[in-house]
Amino acid sequence: MTVAYKIAVRHSRRKTASIYIERDGSLSVLVPEQTTEEEINNILKANEYKIHKYQARCELLNEKATKREPVNGQSFLYLGRNYYLQYHGEAKEIEFKGRYFYVPEGSKEKLNGLFKEFYRKRGYKFIVPRVHKYADMMGLTIEEISVLELKSRWASCSDKKRKVNFHWKVMMAPASVIDYLIVHELCHFKHKRHNAEFWNEVDKYYPEYQKQVAWLKVYGAALEV
Length: 225
Prior knowledge:
Elements: E1 7-12, E2 18-21, E3 27-32, H1 37-46, H2 48-63, E4 75-78, E5 81-87, E6 95-97, E7 100-103, H3 108-138, E8 144-148, E9 155-158, E10 163-167, H4 175-187, H5 196-205, H6 209-219
Parallel strand pairs: 1-3, 5-7, 8-10
Antiparallel strand pairs: 2-3, 4-5, 6-7, 9-10
Helix pairs in contact: 3-4, 4-5
């Protein structure tokens, strides 16, 4: 029986299969290189209950996502705090002052683009030194750090080149959540899988990580412009 899920299948040299349910409810499966389609379907079928459970949770959280309107006084998040939108005729880009985002007049699409660029630029300045701080603590050297648009993850890493990536949306979360995401990705350079050794490594450098995981589960859907 074929399991009717829209999934992304990736093959690797690993010996075991892993299922990842992304924050948007989509499914990723990482399997050994010679795994057949039938074997993949059997893996999904064996984990059907868990998949349904987590996808239902994602759907529920996404229903609670904040829908922001491009009007004066609308709140937008930055590092876990709400600041208020204010259109200003002389603004050329987003100007962040006090409790306000001063923005130029324009369409919702233009406003979204301005916020994405704001979070990306601020994110790079904010995240890079924190990555190097934790990398030094862990005895790691990171070659490249990016803040960009990721499809369905808050952050990712690559071992071919010591690189870590962060979604610009993380700049809406509290600094403590960002620190957890940094530690999480750096720990993957030591432990690829989310096993006990991995979480012990995370706990070593960020003991309160469970609070940040819980925060993302509850409020992650609100990190939208």
